[in-house]
């Protein structure tokens, strides 16, 4: 469907593109360089501008919203200063394959190239981390290039696109603007590809599926489950793609992430056929690119052909949409002979995912309480940090979009991403998990959540340090602590000052009571968990690390 509009401003044309993309929320920090665009949004009741406290927080909100809603996230910022602040969100969207379009107000056209106030070459600045960057200086081309920006962000491997416009361009008039739907192609595999997969599986004795974000973006989770059930295929989740497959399913055998248990790694190592489905086989998923061996047969299936051979040379590369591939793989003539091996690997995974019954530390207490009390459709986001190891190891993710985490490892992500996810799913409980280091980086966005009545729950594990870096510091330079200790901050009190609600807890009973109150709260709530600094990771304490180093 196409719409033709005449004699509208550039700002109005951009808003019409937003409407065509069914954009409900636009995130940003206001700036004078794009005020006409804000004014055009003011006139459009179907779009709400969420004014954040920092562009980095706004970009994380947009990225989290995009992951949850499976629409493009949209961020607005001003010139070089706003663009630089939100660059972390662009990098996250690129590494996480998230569709996002950033609109930046550039300096006036008359000042370009003169090192004007807050000027930078936007195309050169963002080119290394964005999927595409364009600066539009001709008003007539705005509808064409903005629609191309959304199409580029959504097509193939999704990613961030940056659109820069000089501030004077926003007010110019376009004689005729054609606004059209931007369909996303879903390429199907060749019949030869399906036959080749069938032949490889007929010879397999220990096949394994590694499922990534491509499965989620194509909406193929249900097909993956049906395929795995029909052929008794063990399935692993790629790094921070936990909800790609339900953890209580007998075919699920673990998560390939930071600190993956030895038993999970052994499953990947024992496999004779590995089917990488919708994953780029990242550094973390492949355990520093050392996971797979030349003796294993690799089938790499992805919508992005650039990923083939970037890490491992595939024995079979299938360039196609995951949904299209899986719908055809449901009919292959393969009789599985690996059920006993798959069942054994499931048993070994279950042993790693079982919380201790007694003598739980506070992280384990929190995971048990969350599993018991959160609604089944609750959405969990997490920041970067070692605290996430307990979430990844022990929380039982189920069906549906229930997890949002940064494969980029960006600190400060968890709480703003939860704001975006809550806007996408207003009827669902949304919980963020953060450490004290990462939470402080975007804590000001709690005020944003309060101002817009977005009742998220933020769990902050406070051990008064940059825990992940401290762990590496202790491994390499035991006892020589520099830079990783942090000051004493009461995040519960800080939440109150930012118009939210706060609880500080140190026991299982206190946490569960705070969680139940937070689930009923109508405002953003922080549960500050005071943890033992010695509990540095799931696998070790600081004392363990120092003792190991000495020995």
From TrEMBL:
GO terms for biological process: isoleucine biosynthetic process; L-valine biosynthetic process. Residues 9-122 form the Thiamine pyrophosphate enzyme N-terminal TPP-binding domain. Residues 383-529 form the Thiamine pyrophosphate enzyme TPP-binding domain. GO terms for molecular function: acetolactate synthase activity; flavin adenine dinucleotide binding; magnesium ion binding; thiamine pyrophosphate binding. One of its GO terms (cellular component) is acetolactate synthase complex. This is Thiamine pyrophosphate-binding protein. PROSITE patterns: TPP_ENZYMES. It comes from Geobacillus zalihae. Belongs to the TPP enzyme family. InterPro entries: DHS-like_NAD/FAD-binding_dom (IPR029035), THDP-binding (IPR029061), Thiamin_PyroP_enz_cen_dom (IPR012000), Thiamin_PyroP_enz_TPP-bd_dom (IPR012001), TPP-bd_CS (IPR000399), TPP_enz (IPR045229), TPP_enzyme_TPP-bd (IPR011766). The keyword Ribosomal protein does not apply. Residues 194-329 form the Thiamine pyrophosphate enzyme central domain. Keywords: Thiamine pyrophosphate.
